[in-house]
Amino acid sequence: MLFFNKLLPVFVLPIGIVTLLVLLAAWKKWRWAAIVAVLVLLASSTGVVANLLLRPLENAYPARSIASVSAADAVLVLGGVMSPGKEVGLVTEWSEAVERFEAGVEIVQRDKARMLLFTGDPRGSEGSALQREAIERGVPRERTAVIGAVGNTADEAEQLRRYAAQHGLKRVLLVTSAWHLPRAMRLFRSAGVEITAFPVDYRALPSRTLPYLDWIPNAGSLGKTELALRECYGMAFYAVFGK
Fold this sequence. Notes:
Elements: H1 2-12, H2 14-28, H3 31-44, H4 47-58, E1 72-77, H5 99-109, E2 113-118, H6 126-136, E3 144-146, H7 153-167, E4 171-177, H8 181-188, E5 194-200, H9 219-241
Parallel strand pairs: 1-2, 1-4, 2-3, 4-5
């Protein structure tokens, strides 16, 4: 199961495919493999392809304002908000998904949710670091909690199910990146509570004034392409193996 969940994606994403094709071209002296590798890399690195893959994921759940949200028992902020390995330091170092944290804090401060929940080991993790940051920003300690150790989104859904059962939660706002919501909602619907999606952190770019720029390969677009394909792979994985 670990192979299909963690290792196989490495070989079905653009960088993995390109690497395999280059190795094949070098080993077998197959020119076509090198040509295909270049084409895959160039296509995957364009804004056109990145946006084409991201938009269906990000449009699955409509954007909403905090004012429009009905009050909930809790808001759960999914992980991936801090730069990996930098949860502890003199200055908080955020990842591109910092909007998850910002939205969660504001939702509680505007009394749209009673509790602000994070995931991770309470003894020391991104979750506990985010909890401290929220408290420093004025959220009462008693309105925050780190609900358990997790390794992936499926673990986060399971921890919420347990926490909700123990504390009588009926309705929870789920805050995560818009591109991550289709997979996350599939998993969290099994948590035994009413889940309302609150998307943030949109990555697909709007139409440009100079659209030809979307055809110029760049590293940022390659990262977005891999991000979208990884989400699609994750949904396929859970569809096959169950969740």
